[in-house]
């Protein structure tokens, strides 16, 4: 596949990624995406996340959540970071740097993977797109762009490859939900029925060049559009207009978090971090111990014996367990900790993800969450909580 070339706007500071909004304050130096004026015009409520001023919601987080589950939602994800590796040994460099087998990714395809420390702790979870024989695009989380870029530069030493943070070259939009194909169909000549899951295609949307990927973080079918910053407002408005017939809603980071939680998708800083390995998070499948050559963290990951594991928790009430709450057994002994929790808009009851000792991880096990000294009963359930109909 030919390299995708996007027209770039005025360079800005490096960007970053995806997570729960941290604060509603408005730091003077927080970055604005190329779509900031569009969000203001729509009456968005903003939050600061990883140094970016991002839409938290436009009207109702609940309505935005239900739109993604039933029709479609439109997200601005420009805060995520894009790093390219280009050269004859780009694949080999990524094989050494990451836990996955990047050189085995076909041109035009993508793969979920992780970058780990030497001790196996997760530095970040990533999506790697192979844009061409000699070029890869690594998408990193907002708060970790600098860390990932620095690690890739260091780990690529000795390989014939150029590593570049190209985050300022891209804006990133996502259309998610069962109507996403119908929303996009009238704006592109690409046959969307042929666009495979975890694949990317050079395309045009609303007359602008994009890299069109069928990926997402909501548990629904959908697309992510990598577009030049100057073209982002035009594409955003075209998607909103096309989406009117399909009840598409602009959607913020608030509903994005409840959507990914229902789908059992981990969030860096909650379920993932340097203190745990992919195996703790039940994501050992991304670690390719049998790939040729060595990679950073291989020795540690080959010897992992995780004594805790990530599980789902279901409550009988609408009171949601929160991040950091202890999980206890019948005797009151602490056996784990909640990593994420919320009232599920789709299911109508509260759910959470938590790390618990393996002997308490069997679905159907009764436990409790310590909520400021009061025990709220929970049941261990298999992840994900929600799975869309194919």
TrEMBL record:
Alphabetically ordered keywords of this record: Aminotransferase, Methyltransferase, Transferase
Signal peptide: none
Cited function: The glycine cleavage system catalyzes the degradation of glycine.
GCVT N-terminal domain segment(s): 35-291
Gene Ontology cellular component annotations, sorted alphabetically: cytosol; glycine cleavage complex
GO molecular-function terms, A-Z: aminomethyltransferase activity; methyltransferase activity; transaminase activity
Class in the EC hierarchy, top level: transferase
Domain of life, source organism: Bacteria
Catalytic activity: N(6)-[(R)-S(8)-aminomethyldihydrolipoyl]-L-lysyl-[protein] + (6S)-5,6,7,8-tetrahydrofolate = N(6)-[(R)-dihydrolipoyl]-L-lysyl-[protein] + (6R)-5,10-methylene-5,6,7,8-tetrahydrofolate + NH4(+)
Family note: Belongs to the GcvT family.
Gene Ontology terms describing biological process: glycine decarboxylation via glycine cleavage system; methylation
Region of interest: Disordered: 1-30
Name of the featured protein: Aminomethyltransferase
Keyword Cytoplasm carried by entry: no
UniProt xrefs under InterPro entries: GcvT, GcvT/YgfZ/DmdA, GcvT/YgfZ_C, GcvT_bac, GcvT_C, GCVT_N, TrmE/GcvT-like
Positions of the Aminomethyltransferase C-terminal domain: 310-387
Enzyme Commission designation: 2.1.2.10
Subunit structure: The glycine cleavage system is composed of four proteins: P, T, L and H.
Binding-site positions, substrate: 224
